[in-house]
Amino acid sequence: MLRFSVTVLILAHAAILFAGYLAPYGYAEQHRELAYAPPTAIHFDGLRPFVYGERGARYPIHFFTGGRLFGVAAPGYVFLWGTDASGRDVFSRVLYGGRVSLATGLAATVLALGLGLFWGAISGFYGGWIDRLVMRGSELFLALPWLYLLLGVRALLPLHIGTVQAFFLLVAIIGTVGWVRPARIIRGVVLSARERGFVLAARGFGAGAPYLIRRHILPLTGSVLVTQATVLIPQYILAEVTLSFLGLGIGEPIPSWGNMLAEARQYHSLVFHSWMLAPGLAAIPLLFGYLMVADALLERRLKHMVRGA
C-alpha cells in the first residue's frame, strides 16, 4: 500500500510540476467562441489520434510539438475536459491550478510545523507556567470560529489584491491557525524525551536548555514531523480550496482548484456543464495519496513502538 501511495503522489506531483509541458494551452488562453465547450472526443485512425473540428474537418493530434506534450493545429482544438465560461481549457487550468493549491499546502505545512515545533518544544521542556500558558493559548485557538473571522478580515482588505500577496496571506492564515495540533503532539514527545537518561546525563554535565533541545530532543521529533506533514498537507490543500472557493484566496486569472470550483457552484454549471467539477476530481488522487502514506507511516511507527516495548 505504501508503494502504491508513493507512486500516486509521484505521478500527481510530476503532472503538476510539469504543467507547462503537459497542458495543451496556457491557463489564461481564451477561446471566447467556444465557451462551455464539452470535452473533445478523441478518435483514432489506426494508432493515430485525431479530433473533428467544425464542418467535419479532421485535425490530427501531434505529440511533442510547440514545447508541449500534445496539441492540434489551428483552427482545430482539443479540450480534454471541456472549457469554462471564458473558453479556457479546463484540463490545462487544472494542471496549473494544482501548482497554487499544492504550493499553498506545502508552505502552510512548513509554517505550521515550524510554529508547532517551537511552541511544543518550549512547552514540553520547561513545563510549569510556560506549559500552562501555551496549552491554554492553544485551546483558545481551537475554540475560535476561524472561518467567520477570516471572512471578516477579508472584508477589511482591498477588493483586489496581488497574486503574491494573496498567496502569502493564504499561507499565513492556514499555517498560523494550524500550529496547535502539531504543537500538542510534539509537546508529548518532548515531555517523554526530557526524562530520558542521556538527557538527564547531559544536563548533569552542565548542558544548557538550548543545547539539550537542539542536540538531544528535537532529533527525536523527526518521525512525528514527517507523519504530521503527510497528514497536514492534504488538510491544508483542502483549506486553500475552501478559502479560494469563498473568495479569500488567489483571484482570476491565476487558477487554483478553489477559484475554479467557485464557478461550478452555479446551478447551470452543475446541471449542464458537469466538467466544471474536474478540479475537485483531480484533487482526490493527491489527497488520498497523502492520507494513505500518513496511514502507512503511522502503522509502521506503532509497530516500532510495540516492538520497543
From TrEMBL:
GO BP annotation list: transmembrane transport
Pfam families named among the record's database cross-references: BPD_transp_1
Gene Ontology CC terms, in alphabetical order: plasma membrane
TM stretches of this protein: 6-27, 61-82, 102-128, 140-157, 163-180, 217-238, 275-298
Keyword field contains Transmembrane: yes
Keyword field: Cell membrane, Membrane, Transmembrane, Transmembrane helix, Transport
Subcellular location: Cell membrane
Xref: CDD domains: TM_PBP2
Signal sequence coordinates: none
PROSITE patterns: ABC_TM1
Positions of the ABC transmembrane type-1 domain: 98-294
Membrane topology: Multi-pass membrane protein
Family under the similarity heading: Belongs to the binding-protein-dependent transport system permease family.
Protein name: Binding-protein-dependent transport systems inner membrane component
Organism: Solibacter usitatus (strain Ellin6076)
